[in-house]
Design brief:
Chain lengths: 276, 276
């Protein structure tokens, strides 16, 4: 992979990288399209990374469709794919990790304490393998996006992070490879995430600026969904995830909810400096 | 720095990097010479890295001679220097680190528990800033060398680590920027490190293969030096620093000794597969 990227760089091609765990939906495809429209070459990486799953999580059952993913990647503008095996990525005696120790203390990091170290470690490796000029990440994984931006800043990776909007199903559910785990009743209940965020946005647009009130509005929507169990619903500073009492700066309203045994996340940005 | 390195790479120049904390002695100069003879361009980095000093260590008094260092670097073949300030290297809200969690458990890592995380973090940053094809490190800091090799392997850094021999004063003392801290009596006692290693090598050459016996031979030499206080003297596997009982594979005999308040390290490789 490095040789290929080196050779492209020597031809003065710009390289975009879209790191994924495969099981593509339109969210992934939008990242590939964004890269293909910005860069001469687009590398899609497909790697279900064991390091970012805890032993109780869904590493084994995580959906894998490499063949159809590669076809979709090509159709949407990817010019290369990097699909390493677990053995190729991790030596049995591996001992070096990239860790982030502040932003990961809140939100998903609380219930998934080892998750983000797995993410930063694998993304650092993918960056070193693919040597991109730009790397593309979705805003659905908002905390991940901030942590990767922080990693690029703090370790001086020679590349730019581009973030892309959340892509949703027609009924509002944020696209996720895990949506396919949902049964019919759960699929219906999963709509409560977006409905909760919409209700919070409506209150915000009407002038509500108290972060706890906004969270409670969202919470009350989700509590009506029978199969939903809330992990967190929190308004936090959109730049550094610090606590917010009054929304006097841009915040992310982020939530994680288990629908049955499927954990889903979603978020919106509430920006008091911007109308609508 | 990245722009300079990118431009050189586009000209198909190979780049060598010699990361240092300055205060050059002939050890540093040998690394610069090695790089200059291998590579089209040689970047010397000079940065006294606060992250690798504990609060009780000598960060403030660590010798700094940037002007004369730069002159020496140029004279020995360096074509660029990277001398960032602490503020340029570390944001006040930095939160991302590169850690190694196995090799650092022994030898120097035991008495300097945060040292190697500081080293791996800064070296990762220097690699990303300088984008070298090769980076040069001395074997005096043997554990550091292994940890940096491990980092390059585990994080897929696109470069090669080249290790260079220990350079010694005519009387045997391994070159170190910290040697200048030594008073006259201490300078004399500091010779006991090399004498201890020589005594151990002599015993090894005569057939001694018991690791504890080898350590004890070295220990007894150092114990005769009045101002010396031993931190550790240990035979360990030269590849992964695991424990060794019988020397049936290459080992490093490594030691750390405080001479007065100056902590010095040195080591030799004992290789049973090789005569002499």
């Amino acid at each position: 992979m490095q040789d290929w990227s080196h050779a492209r760089r020597m031809e003065r091609k710009t390289i975009g990288c879209v790191p994924t765990m495969g099981a593509f939906h339109r969210g992934h495809l939008s990242l590939i399209e964004a890269s293909a429209s910005d860069c001469d070459e687009t590398i899609v990486t497909i790697f279900v990374n064991p390091l970012q799953f805890s032993p109780t999580e869904d590493f084994r059952q995580y959906p894998r469709n490499e063949e159809s993913d590669l076809k979709l990647a090509r159709e949407n503008g990817a010019t290369a794919a990097y699909c390493p095996t677990v053995d190729a990525m991790y030596y049995p005696d591996r001992s070096v990790y990239v860790i982030e120790d502040t932003l990961k203390e809140v939100l998903c990091g609380k219930s998934r304490p080892t998750h983000f170290a797995g993410v930063t470690t694998v993304v650092a490796k993918l960056f070193n393998a693919c040597l991109p000029d730009r790397a593309y990440f979705g805003r659905k994984d908002y905390q991940q996006l901030l942590i990767i931006r922080r990693m690029v800043r703090d370790l001086d990776f020679p590349l730019e992070i581009v973030d892309c909007p959340i892509i949703r199903e027609p009924d509002g559910l944020a696209m996720s490879s895990r949506n396919m785990y949902l049964g019919d009743k759960e699929r219906q209940d999963a709509l409560s995430l977006k409905q909760a965020l919409d209700a919070a946005r409506t209150a915000f647009d009407k002038g509500e600026r108290n972060a706890r009130a906004i969270e409670n509005i969202a919470r009350s929507v989700i509590e009506k969904a029978e199969t939903a169990r809330i992990d967190y619903i929190e308004c936090r500073d959109a730049g550094n995830l610090s606590e917010v009492i009054d929304i006097d700066r841009p915040v992310v309203l982020a939530l994680a909810v288990s629908i049955g045994s499927t954990r889903l996340i979603d978020n919106i940005i509430l920006n008091p400096g911007k109308e609508g």
